[in-house]
Amino acid sequence: MTMDTLHSATNVIEAHGLERVFEMGSTRVHALRGVDLMVARGEMIAVMGASGSGKSTLMNILGCLDRPTAGSYAVEGASVEDLSNNELANIRNQRLGFVFQGFNLLPRTDALENVELPLLYDRSGQRLDTKGLAAEALGRVGLADRMDHDPSELSGGQQQRVAIARALVTKPSLVLADEPTGNLDSVTSLEIMALFQQLNSQGVTILIVTHESEISRYTERIVELRDGRVIRDEPVSDRHDAQKDLEALQGLELVGVA
Amino acid sequence: MKARNLIRVAGVSILKNKMRTLLTMLGIIIGVGAVIVMVAIGAGAQGQIESQIQNLGTNMIVVTSGSTAEGGVSLGAQSVARLTVEDAEAIEAQGFLLAAVSPVIQTFTQAVGGTGNWRTSVLGVDYDYPIIRDWDVILGDFFDDGDVRSIRREVVLGYTVAENLFPNGDAVGQQLRLRDVPVTVIGVLEAKGQTAEGLDQDDVILAPYTTVQNRMAGRQFVSQILASTYSPEDVPAAQVEIQQILRDTHGQAGNEPDDFTVRDQSELAEAAQSTTKIMTLLLAAIAGISLLVGGIGIMNIMLVSVTERTREIGLRLALGAHDADVMVQFLVESVVMSLVGGLTGVMIGYAGSRAIASATGWSTVVSLPTVLLAMGFAGAVGIFFGFYPARRAAALDPIEALRYE
User: Fold this and answer.
1) A85:B323 CB<8 A
2) Residue B78 reports pLDDT greater than 50
3) Model's pTM, two decimal places?
4) Higher pLDDT, B133 or A146
5) Least CB-CB distance to B399: which of A66, A121, A122?
6) Rounded Cα gap, residues B5 and A131, in angstroms
7) Which CA distances in Å does A204 have to A97, A168, B114, B360, B391?
8) For chain A, is the Cβ count within 10 Å smaller at the N or the C terminus?
9) Pick from A108, A113, A118: which is nearest to B320 by CB?
10) Rounded to an integer, what distance in angstroms lies between the CA atom of residue A25 and that of residue B47?
11) Separation CA B202–CA B126 (nearest Å)
12) Which residues in chain B are contacts of A166 at CB distance < 8 A?
């Protein structure tokens, strides 16, 4: 794809003055009150905030599932405000990957077919070997040997890995993860964060929406929202390595057991 | 979305819920099966009636005494001039368009001989009666012109009579007594089956009309005169011809209404056909209603399915499915279900109509147009009743749908 400017070549996401107003009967709820956000290529960023802070609304807009009431938003330099629903769907399909809190895998459908799902809606015509790409993505998340397993036969952590493989299969510019560890225990959460860090080190841009500060420690940058405004946007000073924390935690558990 | 993927997505969803799919299709299976069976019965009945009308004899004209009720005035049968053998002879002598003419003198009697007694009707007819009725002799011969003139005591048995009195098939040459008149059996007629009214046409003995008139007591008058033309196109003109001959013979004045009735088979055929047509339509309508109910079943299940799979739909939309992709997926699902159900219904209907045919002896006809119509209707039901649920699915907001519990 062609990049309009040098600036947009380095920024996957550029949002300026995003506002989102919900009309609920006669009352107007300002979910976002002017949010600016840039995400550079290769970044791993956490969007934090309590419930009601507007982080879900921001996530929906960044994910092209919703449109801002005011402000501008561009994905890889391409402005999306004026796109039709179908054009937004194509952007979601080709440039964005989604990871949800509840995994959202199709039941009675094996891991390979679940990962293949976004490719069935591909309109670029360049991703024809859907099975091969899905198998490759499952390999990247360490589930090459679980391809024919149904979600019901997989642990929570494995299900989330399948969901991450599904997000990666289209080789998106940005992976958006909405509370990806919300349904997982602490060890599994660390495993997932270790996977995100590993993928990030391979060049995948990742934006994680979370309300847990323990999770945000594994990212490079924290953006905190409150009442629809950014109140903090700073690099993580003491970035943790999830793999090391995981080993330490497992070591502790071993000591505890012994 | 490519067609291959589309079919796959719909197929997977259908196959992954086998029980639900089966229950959904059941309505269509029963509906289409019912259409096939009902129409097969109707068409079979229609075919049977048509062949029965053919059985009566092609190009046949029937003259009966008495006029049809015209202008609300119906003359009593007793007050009307009887048809006579002379009338038949006059028609035969003067009619140019007629291939054969035969009076019919009917009487009922006990036939004694062979294995015992058989009460049946004796028809006194002319030698060309089999031509008019298109009725073949399968054993022996029919009496000829000479037999009729010579008032021979020879008879030809209908199939039912022959079967009952001479079960061994040796009827020809045997003696019978009709009202104490000894007669010789010279032939047996082929089986003609029942009339549209359910009367056994084969329960009859045919004798020369001269013999019936002269040798047997009882009704002496001619109940009918049957005639046939050389070709079906001549039938209307021949009717007019017969009417003129009879008016002359009966000496009727110009403005007097006919004291007889001339009919051809087309009226009967039309009446019978319109009756069976109404019956077929009625059966098809009942079956169509069951197909409609099946369609509502599909809509019901599809609506449940849309609600049940709200999160799945949200996911598909989030992953890049266009509204149309989701809509087409659900439409394809309902159409595939109704077509597969329709095909199953056709097979079950076919088997069912065969079973009914062998169980009841009715003839049933499963025709290709009926099958195609039923399948087409099933497909249309799938589209029509799948449309609303599909549109509802496509109109879902992905954010809301993903959050749906």
Assistant:
1) yes
2) no
3) 0.69
4) A146
5) A66
6) 12
7) 10, 9, 105, 75, 37
8) C
9) A118
10) 68
11) 18
12) 319
In the structure, what pLDDT confidence band is assigned to residue B67 with cuts at 50, 70 and 90?
Answer: low
- Subunit contact B321:A100, Cβ cutoff 8 A: no
Whether residue A101 lies within 8 A of chain B, CB to CB, comes out as: no
> Which single residue is written with the structure tokens 């591909």?
A122
Tokens of B133: 């009725």
∠ CA A182-A55-A5, nearest 5°, is 115
**Which of A90, A100, A106 has the CB atom closest to B320's CB atom?**
A90
Reading the block at residue A189, the tokens are: 């959460």
A121 in reach of chain B (CB within 8 A): yes
Smallest CA–CA separation between A231 and chain B, in Å?
Answer: 26
* DSSP β-ladder status, A206-210 and B224-229: unpaired
Q: Which residue of A has its CA nearest to B8?
A: A120
Q: Mean per-residue pLDDT for B15-43? A: 86
- The whole-chain average pLDDT of chain B stands at 85
What tokens were used for B199?
């009367």
* Helix (H/G/I), strand (E/B), else coil: A113: helix
Residues paired with residue B175 on neighbouring β-strands, in sequence order: B184
User: Which range (A154-158, A173-177, B5-9, B312-316) has the least confidence?
Assistant: B5-9
Q: How far apart are CA B182 and CA B174, in angstroms?
A: 10
| Max CA distance (Å), chain A | 62
> pLDDT tens-digit profile of A85-118?
999 999 999 999 999 988 999 888 899 999 999 9
Q: For chain A, positions 128-187, list CB contacts with chain B under 8 A.
A: 166
Cα separation of the two ends of chain B: 28
In terms of Cα–Cα distance, which of A132, A122, A126, A115 is closest to A169? A115
- Please provide the average confidence, as pLDDT, over all residues in chain A: 90
Q: Are B245 and B91 in contact (CB under 8 A)?
A: yes
Chain length of chain A: 258
Is the Cβ–Cβ distance between A51 and A211 less than 8 Å?
A: yes
- B53 is written with which tokens? 């009308």
pLDDT of residue B220: 66
Q: Out of A63, A65, A121, name the one closest to residue B325 (CB).
A: A121
| A166 with B320: Cβ contact below 8 A | no
Q: What is the pLDDT of residue B347?
A: 94
Whether A11 and A79 have beta carbons less than 8 Å apart is answered as no
Check CB contact of B236 with chain A, cutoff 8 Å.
Answer: no
Closest to B318 (Cβ–Cβ): which among A92, A108, A113? A92
